[in-house]
């Protein structure tokens, strides 16, 4: 990844390849060894992540804790952004808005599907649809903003 | 579960005491044994919670993961609501909006201070200010909505 | 409109027709004579509205005021909901979250395309994509929640 | 206001006076002649604005349209920011999240009280409490983000 990957504008202009899923996995595995999200796909402005669900992730009512779904949304956005702008570790969440729509299944993984809505020089905005694995009914919907650090 | 405390309206009308911090701690300890938040205070429309921070809670840049702060915001709201309406386990988050303002200290606990803005029959809305322990600078600000199940 | 239209669940169960665009237009014209939004389409869980833009709708920088886009988002949600649950005038917005993505054209109408994400008994949640007419680039994205009054 | 007013950091460092209410009023009157918000106060990180309510601002149920409250929130943020960073016309809203809490009075002005939570170089975040004039019960609560253009 060359020195010009820092913004999507640069990437768009000079036709750089997006960051590969393997590169992102290596980075995430090294920097966030505790994460339980795995990457299922990274594409043009999109990413899909998966978070297994165990007993420790449940709350009263036999459903998944909201915090888990917020984390999946946040990670899905992060992966989609890294896929687009390259490995920029100090890219940080500036805001996240999540609506919980339906009770997720207690026994299934949570899948987060992110679509970036805008990749600007300083801010990236995307939405994430969350599902219980194997179901087509959205269990939550999130919109988040990440800030990209200025190039040095 | 007593018959009369189930809604804030009932509580307001007949002057019931709010749920005590000890009752809430017992409930949370039983239902959410994995939580790392402790309750510091529960008052009229307010609650303060604390989450210790360890190496596993950090992200690149030496700061606290966003997911931790979202969880603190969510728990602070939940505790404040239980304090107001009683132990209603199926009270669930319907939405959360969080803005990250400043980089939290890597070596300090996160403190969440919740203030409820409205306690209705079906929906409760509150805001949470998040701090690194010992600092007066807000590191994040959240607004969340919880749904209260109808009384049977 | 018969007595059973009140919830989407009822509508789904007994197969009631959705409210027609003409019925909604008549209602909106009578109740909100000052609105400058017109309805372009109402479909299953969707609605499209259009707001003309004049000089009074612009702000410095030659772009559309944010308030106009918030109004289009709010109206698009309202129309989609009326299309789904029938003419329930006291259906009111409980929250709206909007992200402004790109500068809209000063000389074009704003188009709002709503898709409902969940139609529950008490709450409806939907998202709205906003465009400058004739362009495929989203200028803003909103997520809103409406509360449906209980049936009397 | 000299050439260095462009960021809050600069203002904080070199101790520039905040923009005066009169300067802001002159700017707003010239640039937004159609606005119906008046400025009641501008202070350190705060602003209070007022929007008269007439028949054209009401919706079914005898209450104020949500769009009016969104506009008051947006304007209150804008005024507070101009008070802090100076007259920077291209400062634009990037996101707004609003929760509607109680039915505002149909016959009273809406008052918006803004408090800025963070004034950064590129982003400003603040919250706005909305009231019916003369009442202490919050009718809505908003959190918004503005983007400040880079200095040329």
What does this structure look like?
The structure is a homotetramer of 152-residue chains. Chain A is an alpha+beta fold and 152 residues long. Chain A has one domain: Roll (Thiol Ester Dehydrase, Chain A), CATH 3.10.129.10. The first copy, chain A, has three helices and eight strands. Chain A has a six-stranded antiparallel sheet, with helices on one face. In chain A, strand 6 and strand 7 form a beta hairpin. The radius of gyration of chain A is 15 Å and the shape is globular. The two termini of chain A are 16 Å apart. The N terminus of chain A is likely disordered. Chains B and D meet through strand 8 of B and strand 8 of D. Strand 5 of chain A pairs antiparallel with strand 5 of chain B, so a sheet runs across the interface.
Secondary structure blueprint with pairings:
4 copies of one chain form a homotetramer.
Chain A: H1 8-14, H2 21-31, E1 37-43, E2 46-51, E3 58-59, E4 63-64, H3 66-85, E5 92-100, E6 110-119, E7 123-132, E8 138-147
Antiparallel strand pairs in A: 1-2, 2-6, 3-4, 5-8, 6-7, 7-8
In short:
By secondary structure, the first copy, chain A, is α+β, with helices and mostly antiparallel strands.
Please state the second-level CATH architecture of chain A.
Roll
Mean pLDDT of chain A: 86
Fill in the CATH topology of chain A.
Thiol Ester Dehydrase, Chain A
Order of helices and strands of chain A: HHEEEEHEEEE
User: Going by CATH, what is the homologous superfamily of chain A?
Assistant: Hotdog Thioesterase
Global morphology of chain A: globular
Q: What oligomeric assembly is this protein in?
A: homotetramer
State the helix count of chain A.
3
Number of domains of chain A: 1
Task: Give me the side-by-side strand order of the main sheet of chain A.
Answer: 1-2-6-7-8-5
Which pair of chains forms the biggest interface, and how many residues does each contribute? C-D, 25 and 25 residues
What's the count of strands of chain A?
8
Major sheet of chain A: 6 strands, antiparallel
Distance between the termini of chain A: 16 Å
Using only C-alpha atoms, the radius of gyration of chain A works out to 15 Å
Residues in helix, % of chain A: 25-40%
